[in-house]
Amino acid sequence: LENLLVAQHNTLMPNVASGLLAVFGLGGHARAQTVAIDRACEWLDRINLLARADDPAGALPYGDQRRLEIARAMCTSPVLLCLDEPAAGLNPRESDALASLLKTIQADGCSILLIEHDMGVVMRISDQIVVLDHGKLIAHGDPAAIRANPAVIAAYLGESDDDDIDSPIASTSATGVAA
């Protein structure tokens, strides 16, 4: 809970003029604090961590810590959420939970700029994908176009007559940017 409240410090920090009023619970600080706590609890509920609201963040499993980081960012009400490798180190179950969370964030109207090697996550949440190979643009398009793009397949899966490329995304490690 404290991690999500810290993210809202701008709305909670009374300015010098209203500082004295805040000490006495006047001037709207109590209301701002209630709103911040409600927002934090809403995000803890959305990431299935409300029951652990008082636990130290460092005591959470790694996947939960990643979702908590995203919830902390969302407590600032961004219009664009920029994420760099949020699925790094996650197991498949945690990656699925992350992708689901990102889809709900998109549904709420927040755009996402994602840099990610987990192409399963990229394909599930992206409208448009830019694929880079060693910093060079090799493809741009929607997920279906990227999945079928020969340059993407060659760069990230290799080319071989023996390769089964029916599902190229399952085993690729491409760097993608999705928004």
Task: Describe the protein's architecture and organization.
The protein is α+β, with helices and mostly antiparallel strands. The chain is built from nine helices and five strands. It has helices spanning 2-6, 9-12, 16-23, 29-46, 62-74, 92-107, 119-125, 143-148, 150-157; strands at residues 80-84, 111-116, 129-133, 136-141, 175-178.
**Helix count?**
9
Using only C-alpha atoms, the radius of gyration works out to 20 Å
Low-confidence stretches: 160-179
What order do the SSEs take from the amino end to the carboxyl end, as H and E? HHHHHEHEHEEHHE
Largest beta-sheet details:
5 strands, mixed
Briefly characterize the structure:
The protein has 179 residues and is of the alpha+beta class. It has helices spanning 2-6, 9-12, 16-23, 29-46, 62-74, 92-107, 119-125, 143-148, 150-157, and strands at residues 80-84, 111-116, 129-133, 136-141, 175-178.
Keywords:
9 helices; 179 residues; 5-stranded mixed sheet; alpha+beta; elongated; 15% strand; 5 strands
